Amino acid sequence: MSAGTFTPRPGAAPVSRMIVTQTALETRMLLRNGEQLLLTVIIPALLLTLFSAVDIVDTGAGKSVDFLAPGVLALAVMSTAFTGQAIATGFDRRYGVLKRLGASPLPRWALMTAKTLSVLVTEVLQVALLTVIALALGWSPQGNPLSVAALLLLGTAAFSGLGLLMAGTLRAEATLAAANLVFLLLLVGGGVIVPLEKFPGAVQSVLGLLPISALSDGLREVLRHGTALPWGDAAVLAVWAVLGLGAAAKFFRWE
Amino acid sequence: MSNDPAVEIRGLVKRYGTKTAVDGLDLTVPRARVTAVLGPNGAGKTTTVETCEGYVRPDAGTVRVLGLDAAADAEALRPRIGVMLQSGGVYSGARAVEMLRHVARLHAHPLDVDTLVERLGLGGCGRTPYRRLSGGQQQRLALALAVVGRPELVFLDEPTAGLDPQARRATWDLVRELRSDGVTVVLTTHHMDEAEQLSDEVAIMDAGRVIAHGSPEELCRGGAENTLRFTGRPSLDLASLLKALPDGTQAAELTPGAYRVTGEVDPQLLATVASWCAQHGVLPSSLSVERHTLEDVFLELTGKELRA
């Protein structure tokens, strides 16, 4: 390098460029991670295919894919916004990535924006893939796509808040274990593949307040029964989103 | 560029619980110079540097960096400073060049990434994810990340820890080049020779304070005396030598023909001894100067080994 190479010429890139490049990197890291792909793509796709093709769980009247597709879409949102984001952010924090980026020109709000955009990009890919699979299995969706998008966004906000809360307060290993455990429990108890009606009445009303139940039930209302917008489920998701994001903003530790 | 110091710390105090990490520290770092911060483990080096970087909020005192308040103006400072962390800071699945290119894109006028990659020998990292790079490769990447945005001021936390001698030289060359291009460098180190080789200024820290500050020459000159030894024919008239030397200098014949002069050994003293030898027809068969190293000074001041 010739003399003058390092002559100071500091400056931040335009914030739009920073957000785009950060989103691209976050998305690449997520798609490159085998464990994350298992969680976000393979498990939902397998569950959808397996449970639609084989009559393992009694999903009530009608085609089982009409019951399962909305549930698996809810699961996909949870796997990316909650489990995947919690684990990735937990390890980013543990490996000093958040600290390192904290010394770069990228503002914190722009980093969080990029993380959210990266979650949304991943979800678009998931929804596209799962929709194709479900249609191939004979799914006949009803309802307004805008209502579906609204529920998916509310669900993303709710799960992101909870995921970031976990990643920002627990050790990375604890986050890894807890996020996977919660994923499994909510998969079983959140009306994704097992209808909530299978549980005893008292348990059912508690489970119905979980974000995963609200999202899978809400999506099912729209996609299966053609409801305009299930306000009750949307309200439950909104409350989780406010609580989760609020707590994450308050308790998140960057180091 | 302004002539204000790059960093000006006054009365910095930082406590963690009941432990005081930094205890009323004052430090001034001049611009476009290399300043080394030395100290035993636990002296408060990293806390001090992280306060300048805006990571740590002081409990008391002021920390001004490039004329701004390190805590209150952190956002405005960040694009202007480069930070090398002691470890980590990279996505475990990211490749070295990918991460470097990414951080470059966060800046308005970054260095050419390919040139920097070649310069620091990172080209061989290829598609290996960060977590599988060697310690030395991770270290060089951290250095590259600190300078790629063309900062005015870089903080290097133990930049050569764990590097092989060749990579260490390459890092030293880069630091010298930064300095000659007008970049201010603040580095912490465990290596005395590194501080001696690289820095214009050395600040020695112990127990949360700066206990000595100056150029390496000043620090080595102060305090301990230095020694000049020569051998010649036995029983030379040392009294006449002492007359020619400054007051306070001592001379002795340790064994027949082996002489030792102690005092403030500078070029003038060496010239005086040599010309005295010439006057007396003595050709010294050996002549050596033993200067105190920074390490001697450090041990004297702190009473501790650097590597605790």
TrEMBL record, chain A:
The chain crosses the membrane at residues 37-56, 68-91, 117-140, 146-167, 174-196, 231-252. One of its GO terms (molecular function) is ABC-type transporter activity. One of its GO terms (cellular component) is ATP-binding cassette (ABC) transporter complex. The keyword tRNA-binding does not apply. It is a multi-pass membrane protein. InterPro entries: ABC2_TM, ABC2_TM_bact-type, ABC_2_transport, Nod_factor_ABC_transporter. Pfam families: ABC2_membrane. Keywords: Antibiotic resistance, Cell membrane, Membrane, Transmembrane, Transmembrane helix, Transport. Belongs to the ABC-2 integral membrane protein family. This is Transport permease protein. It comes from Streptomyces lavendulae subsp. lavendulae. The lineage of its organism: Bacteria, Bacillati, Actinomycetota, Actinomycetes, Kitasatosporales. The gene is drrB6.
From TrEMBL, chain B:
Residues 7-232 form the ABC transporter domain. It is found in: Cell membrane. Its EC number is 7.6.2.2. SMART domains: AAA (SM00382). One of its GO terms (molecular function) is ATP hydrolysis activity. Its main location: membrane. One of its GO terms (cellular component) is plasma membrane. It is a peripheral membrane protein. Belongs to the ABC transporter superfamily. Drug exporter-1 (DrugE1) (TC 3.A.1.105) family. This is ABC-type xenobiotic transporter.
